[in-house]
Amino acid sequence: MPNFRMLLSYDGARYQGWQRQGNTKNTIQGKLEETLSRILETPVELHGSGRTDAGAHALGQTASFRAETDLPPQAILRALRRYLPEDIGVLALEYAPPRFHARLSAVGKTYRYRVWNSERPNVLERRYLYTVPAALDLGAMERAAADLLGTHDFRSFCANPRLKKSSVRTIQALDIRRLGDEVRFTVTGDGFLYNMVRIVVGTLLEVGLRRREAGCIPEILAARSRAAAGETAPARGLCLMEVYYP
Amino acid sequence: MPNFRMLLSYDGARYQGWQRQGNTKNTIQGKLEETLSRILETPVELHGSGRTDAGAHALGQTASFRAETDLPPQAILRALRRYLPEDIGVLALEYAPPRFHARLSAVGKTYRYRVWNSERPNVLERRYLYTVPAALDLGAMERAAADLLGTHDFRSFCANPRLKKSSVRTIQALDIRRLGDEVRFTVTGDGFLYNMVRIVVGTLLEVGLRRREAGCIPEILAARSRAAAGETAPARGLCLMEVYYP
Question: B122 and A89: CB-CB below 8 Å?
Fold first, then answer.
């Protein structure tokens, strides 16, 4: 049974996140599975590299599926582009090695979080930005971000209090950059806990707004408690940029 | 009575264009007038630099109004930002000289038209792009564009067949640029006829697709007939970037 790998972009505003949930059809996974199953005339189970939150976006989500079909990837791709709504876009579709699995094979991810740091509204990009009009101290945020780099127990940055598995993760890079009125966070790691990027950004923004000290991170990490970290930044600013495979 | 000048951006997707029309409340001008009149507690008539089409956008529309009010511009600006929907953004508001009028004082405008030239969908910017997946000959479009520069009778590029006034206009610059998968047209002129930018872009795209010769423009201009030019490109790709004043 051929194995396929798909590169996806989506505007998450209309969806209750990536993951199909019981009866809920309004998820990205659900919409893609429904469309693929119709095209291939057989039920298809799609594996994403991971869930994205309700309202979060993707420019480089990866997913995989197996299906008993003679249709070549280019034909499936054309059909998907014809039948999917315009807020889900398939960038590429190709045969994958038999053992490839979008979630189990993934070794890392890059997320971007966009903050609009101005009182002057950005109407054309508003759906992909979280607006914070007050002044942000970039230097302080960068000093705090440095303490998040490397391998840590990120339990304080996880919204799931009942997490049984390890909450140890490695952040390889956390870049904060001003682009005109935008402040853009780009974070790369081997994996991310539930809401982790949004809690990291929310905490760094509190540092930038001088509501927390730039040196607050070691204590937050040590607490191993969600209550120690800052607020969860809204999903609309978040975008999954790339998933890495060996 | 103080005179005010306003710099505006808007996402035109939800609106029937700039201009208030009879009972129709669903125009940008109508929405702004309604909001301003409520804030200033007096009927306000707003003058835009010109109409924009239903579905077209603006990053730098200029408008002016007079109102008997003691409220300073900063207070009106804050109130507008609070009460306007998120697809209309006021970038600046200031006192204007007594004789300033956004339409009558304007001496030029710049429009941008964005074409997405790829089969790979751009979901995040889809609302502001017209997708043309087939190959475009940029050199041919540039040669055709050169013949549009300068002062001409642009009647062939005007969607209003009953235009009584002069259809002579001057195009000072028409730049066509590839930015990755995007082809971006930027056109500056002293004024534009009804649908003129969209017909210019639609005609140039036909040249780019090799459905017309690069040398077709002089004949189209000479015809002084809408039927001689190409199709009207969709409004969604169009954005008013800047209005110039002496």
Answer: yes
CA distance linking residue B122 with residue B236, whole number of Å: 14
Dist. CA B168–CA A190, nearest whole Å? 62
**Integer Cα distance of A176 and A193 in angstroms:** 20
The interface predicted TM-score (ipTM) is: 0.90
pLDDT at B44: 95
Cα separation, A39 vs B26, in Å, equals 39
- The answer to whether residue A56 neighbours chain B at the CB level (below 8 Å) is no
Tens of pLDDT, residue by residue over B169-196, are 999 999 999 999 999 999 999 999 999 9
Whether chain B has a CB inside 8 Å of the CB on A133: the answer is no
How is residue A25 written in tokens?
């059809």
Q: How far is A244 from chain B (nearest CA, A)?
A: 20
The pTM is what? Answer: 0.92
Q: Name the average pLDDT for chain A.
A: 96
**DSSP-based three-state secondary structure for B21:** strand
Token digits of residue A38:
């119709």
CB contact under 8 A, A91 and B119: no
Place of tokens 């036909």: B206
Is the CA virtual torsion B235, B238, B243, B244 positive or negative? negative
Structure-block tokens of residue A179: 């682009």
Q: What are phi and psi of A221, to 5 degrees?
A: -60, -45
Could B124 and A91 be called an inter-chain contact, meaning their C-beta atoms sit closer than 8 Å? no
